[in-house]
Amino acid sequence: MRRIAEPTDRERGGTAVIVAILMVVLLGFAAISIDVAKLYSERAQLQNGADAAALMVAQKCAKDKADTNCSEISPLAADFANLNSVDGLSNMKSIDLDKDNGTVRVTTGAKEAGGATNSVSLFFAGVLGIPSAEVSATSSVQWGTPSKGPVILPLAIAACKFNLDAAAGVGSEQVLELAVNGCGGIPGGFGWLKDSRDGETDGECGITVTVGTADHEGTWVYSDPGASMPSVCTADDLSKMNNQTVLLPLYAVAAGTGSGGEYYIKGFAAFHVTAYHFASASWQISGGQICNKCLRGHFVEYVSLSKALELGNTPDYGTSVVRLTIGEP
């Protein structure tokens, strides 16, 4: 009987060896499923923090390059990065700022309480000899003046009417009268714009306007003559401007007459509307003063994050566009 049992005795411990080998594999899968997921989560948090910090710095620079947060040691940048982290901790690795070209690049890294910066500790991978991994994220943002974009009201204002106190960031209350749009306006033109020479439209009140180039070539916008606003515009369309800041195209040159008129758009300016009066619609803030065939309000500094606005090298009328350009892995 002893001889019969001997072959079986030789296989004792084989299961333990197999389990030991499989345990390494299981730990590897655990490291992939848990530790890698942890790294991806940390990476997403860092990217959100980098985006938020970069956008903040760009907005500050767009309004005032002398702002303390428009700098490579912005005190708010780290706060924005930390607020986008689940544990409230992150490392501001660097802020690369180019004020002349309007770009900022922010890089954030991981940070653990009591641990090394830029690294995330790993539990299961540590058993395999990988105790931590470096995690970081980079975000680039650009700012500048708008060169093309939609406007709620298809109306161009003479650039000579622009008045903004750069120090205060807001202009004095003024009336932009359409009848005397001035500065070389079109006879019979009140500044109304249309999409095409023949007046064809997509049925929308607002239109998309492109700022012209220095040579005035291919950058003219057609005039919709007369005092009345375009027929496609309704009272509901105009109500979007009530006590709101809207973009106005500013024209530098006007040519032609009547329906053959054209405006050369020089740039965009932000105007906060407090009253308006047109042939078929009017509105005013309670207690405010109404005007006749005009807009009332004041020019303001304005920073937009809208993707509908394109960046370009255009004259600065206090309106800026901030654009997230890349988030690098």
What would the keywords be for this entry?
329 residues; alpha+beta; eight-stranded mixed β-sheet; seven-stranded mixed β-sheet
Task: Give an overview of the whole structure.
There is one protein chain. With 329 residues, the protein is α+β, with helices and mostly antiparallel strands. The chain is built from five helices and 17 strands. It has helices at residues 2-9, 14-63, 75-83, 124-127, 235-239, and strands at 91-98, 103-109, 119-121, 132-134, 136-151, 157-158, 174-177, 193-194, 207-210, 220-223, 245-255, 262-277, 282-284, 294-300, 302-304, 310-312, 319-328. The strands form three sheets. Strands 6, 7, 8, 10, 11, 12, 13 and 14 form an eight-stranded mixed sheet that branches. Strand 12 and strand 13 form a beta hairpin. Helix 2 (14-63) crosses helix 3. The N and C termini lie far apart (68 Å).
Structure, briefly:
The chain is of the alpha+beta class and 329 residues long. It contains 5 helices and 17 strands.
Task: List the SSEs and their pairings.
Blueprint: H1 2-9, H2 14-63, H3 75-83, E1 91-98, E2 103-109, E3 119-121, H4 124-127, E4 132-134, E5 136-151, E6 157-158, E7 174-177, E8 193-194, E9 207-210, E10 220-223, H5 235-239, E11 245-255, E12 262-277, E13 282-284, E14 294-300, E15 302-304, E16 310-312, E17 319-328
Parallel strand pairs: 6-11, 15-17
Antiparallel strand pairs: 1-2, 2-5, 3-4, 5-9, 5-16, 5-17, 7-14, 8-10, 10-12, 11-12, 12-13, 12-14
